[in-house]
Q: What sequence folds into this?
């Protein structure tokens, strides 16, 4: 993504010297913004690269979406108890947790690490992100 950002804004600045349509100079603030955004993309690419590898580390990676969805289901359940709304979203989240848990449980290399990491990631997501 960094290369794409550099080539896009660099090429725009170079073409701006010759073609009036691309004039406006080098947009440094956008370049810095997209460069900073490329860092989480690189981290996500690194995680996805090891997702299906035959390492114990993949058990933790498989647990991350389960934990996030379980945290959302927990938050929606608490909201549902207080306000009696979002029943469909609650049902879909619970079904999603069950289905993804079963699918990822089969593929995880270490089942114990997968279950522990699912619980820990669920707690982290629930308490870190304000609902």
A:
């Amino acid at each position: 993504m960094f290369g794409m950002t550099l080539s896009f804004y660099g090429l725009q600045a170079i073409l701006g010297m010759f073609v009036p349509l691309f004039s406006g100079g080098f947009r440094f603030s956008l370049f810095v913004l997209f460069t900073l955004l490329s860092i989480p993309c690189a981290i996500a690419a690194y995680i996805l690269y090891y997702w299906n590898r035959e390492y114990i580390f993949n058990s933790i990676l498989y647990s991350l979406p389960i934990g996030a969805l379980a945290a959302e289901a927990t938050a929606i359940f608490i909201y549902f108890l207080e306000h009696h709304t979002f029943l469909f979203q609650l049902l879909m989240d619970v079904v999603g947790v069950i289905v993804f848990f079963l699918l990822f449980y089969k593929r995880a290399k270490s089942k114990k690490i997968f279950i522990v990491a699912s619980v820990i990631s669920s707690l982290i997501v629930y308490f870190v992100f304000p609902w």
Summary: The helical segments are 2-16, 28-49, 57-83, 87-107, 111-128. The first helix runs from residue 2 to 16. DSSP finds five helices and no strands in the chain.
